[in-house]
């Protein structure tokens, strides 16, 4: 009996100790958890707010103070009005931090009074602050002026992401990453789905003399863009390059009369704004823009409902782009005169899936023509897999019979496909066409023009 009581008391003591440990860890999690701020009231927030602001008291009149750690912070806006700017995290010039990482702002509603939304924002002039891996997610909201995934006055902006959807309207522009006075903008990404942007969209933008805008990406999957779309831009007259960037057009978006698709743009003529930049056009058709420029690579994924002679991409002013002399204050709506689309040093890839009719398929229709093609490719040998499409040996630039100054970039399917194909992608060096098999043994043989 005594042994039973002893064991019972021992069990109770151990239980109390375990509970104490659980409570201790819970308190530690509360005290040292990641800063977060949710704006759920209809109050007017009269100053800048961020995930590392002081907690919202219902009015947030003095929220322009950012005392908490500016990493892994979250600001959620559900309703209310914000007079100042809104960020996942923000620091001013008094901060000694060297990086801002993993911050997020989620917008589900609210009135932003023509202000700015940022995933993370460093206003520090004294320190070089890296703004990396921050996110903006906009699902709703009104009167939004500008959006940045990451913004830094001094430092590199990298791996930041912006997602805008659900018919949200942005009145001016959208940037994945922005570096102002020093540093690169690299590996940033913007995805726009069913939203409207009144200005231009860029994956990464650099406004300093040393930084590069490289390996950024813009994905337009529906919605409407009134301004230009640029993978990466260096708008100062420095030595930075804009290379390795991607612009992808998916679905059925609409573009304004001034929209140009640009892989890269640099204010300095000696900089590289061409190498590695890629334009992806996937499962869409009749996309009309003002101009196309600075893409080393073109990838066309033909939709199964595309008919011969239907243009996939139409360029009204050919290779028109932003005027380099007007880039000092950003991507202004000032453009070069109409000119041919430049393909002489570009690689062209064509892919498809499903059964398609034989005929000539127009990849690009340029009202200002093209500067030519540089290379040809022969098709894969028939014994290297079940050939589904029999394409002619090379792309053509042909005159448009209805428009005297217009030329079409055309690929020809010589016979109707004999079986459905698994989508395959084969890249070659130089301008060429893709021959799609089952996704097996795609071989391209380069042949110099004689």
The percent range for strand residues is 35-45%
Characterize the overall form: globular
Major β-sheet profile: 11 strands, parallel
Unreliable stretches (pLDDT < 50, length at least 5) are: 18-33, 56-64, 376-390, 418-450
Topology, number of strands: 41
Helical amount among residues, as a percent range? under 10%
How far is it from the N-terminal to the C-terminal residue, by CA?
104 Å
Mean pLDDT metric: 79
Give the number of helices: 1
The radius of gyration computed from the alpha-carbon positions, rounded to a whole number of angstroms, is 27 Å
Widest β-sheet, arrangement of strands: 1-4-9-13-16-20-24-27-30-33-35
Which class best fits the helix and strand makeup?
A: mainly beta
List its traits:
450 residues; mainly beta; eleven-stranded parallel sheet; 1 helix; 41 strands; disordered C terminus
Give a verbal description of the structure.
- The chain has 450 residues and is mainly β.
- It is built from 1 helix and 41 strands.
- The strands form 7 sheets. The chain has an 11-stranded parallel sheet, with no helix packed on it.
- The N and C termini lie far apart (104 Å).
Task: Please summarize what this structure is.
The chain is mostly beta strands.
List the helices and strands and how they pair.
Layout: H1 2-32, E1 36-39, E2 44-45, E3 49-50, E4 74-77, E5 81-82, E6 86-87, E7 90-91, E8 99-101, E9 104-107, E10 111-118, E11 121-122, E12 130-132, E13 135-138, E14 142-154, E15 157-158, E16 161-164, E17 169-170, E18 174-182, E19 185-186, E20 189-192, E21 196-197, E22 201-206, E23 213-214, E24 217-221, E25 224-225, E26 229-234, E27 246-250, E28 254-255, E29 260-266, E30 278-282, E31 287-289, E32 291-293, E33 297-302, E34 311-315, E35 347-352, E36 359-366, E37 376-378, E38 390-391, E39 396-399, E40 407-415, E41 445-447
């Amino acid at each position: 009996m005594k042994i039973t009581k002893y064991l019972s008391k021992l069990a109770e003591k151990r239980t109390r100790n375990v509970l104490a440990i659980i409570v201790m860890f819970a308190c530690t999690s509360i005290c040292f958890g990641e800063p977060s701020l949710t704006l759920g009231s209809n109050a007017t927030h009269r100053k800048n707010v961020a995930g590392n602001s002081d907690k919202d008291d219902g009015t947030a009149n003095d929220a322009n103070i950012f005392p908490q750690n500016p990493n892994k912070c979250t600001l959620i806006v559900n309703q209310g009005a914000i007079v100042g700017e809104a960020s996942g995290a923000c620091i001013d010039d008094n901060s000694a931090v060297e990086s801002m990482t993993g911050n997020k702002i989620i917008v589900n509603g609210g009135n932003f009074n023509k202000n700015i939304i940022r995933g993370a924002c460093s206003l520090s002039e004294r320190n070089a602050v890296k703004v990396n891996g921050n996110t903006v997610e906009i699902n709703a909201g009104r009167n939004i002026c500008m959006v940045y995934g990451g913004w830094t006055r001094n430092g590199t902006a990298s791996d930041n992401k912006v997602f805008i959807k659900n018919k949200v309207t942005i009145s001016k522009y959208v940037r994945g990453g922005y570096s102002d006075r020093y540093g690169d903008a690299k590996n940033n990404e913007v995805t726009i789905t069913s939203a409207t942007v009144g200005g231009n969209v860029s994956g990464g933008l650099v406004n300093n003399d040393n930084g590069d805008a490289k390996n950024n990406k813009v994905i337009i999957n529906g919605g409407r863009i009134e301004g230009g779309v640029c993978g990466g831009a260096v708008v100062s007259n420095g030595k930075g390059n804009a290379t390795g960037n991607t612009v992808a057009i998916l679905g059925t978006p609409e573009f304004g009369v001034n929209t140009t698709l640009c892989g890269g743009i640099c204010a300095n003529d000696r900089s590289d704004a061409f190498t590695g930049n890629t334009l992806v056009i996937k499962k869409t058709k009749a996309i009309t823009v003002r101009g196309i420029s600075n893409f080393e690579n073109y990838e066309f994924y033909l939709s199964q409902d595309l008919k011969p002679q239907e243009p996939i991409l139409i360029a009204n002013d050919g290779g028109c782009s932003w005027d380099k002399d007007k880039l000092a204050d950003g991507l202004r709506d000032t453009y070069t005169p109409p000119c041919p689309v430049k393909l002489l040093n570009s690689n062209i890839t064509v892919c498809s899936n499903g059964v398609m009719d034989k005929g000539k398929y127009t990849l690009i229709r340029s009202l200002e023509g093209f500067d030519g093609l540089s290379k040809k490719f022969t098709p894969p040998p028939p014994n290297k897999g079940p050939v589904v499409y029999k394409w002619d040996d090379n792309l053509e630039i042909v005159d448009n019979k209805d428009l005297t100054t217009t030329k079409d970039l055309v690929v020809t399917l010589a016979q109707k496909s004999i079986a459905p194909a698994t989508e395959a992608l084969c890249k070659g060096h130089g301008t060429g066409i893709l021959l799609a098999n089952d996704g097996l043994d795609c071989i391209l043989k380069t042949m110099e023009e004689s």
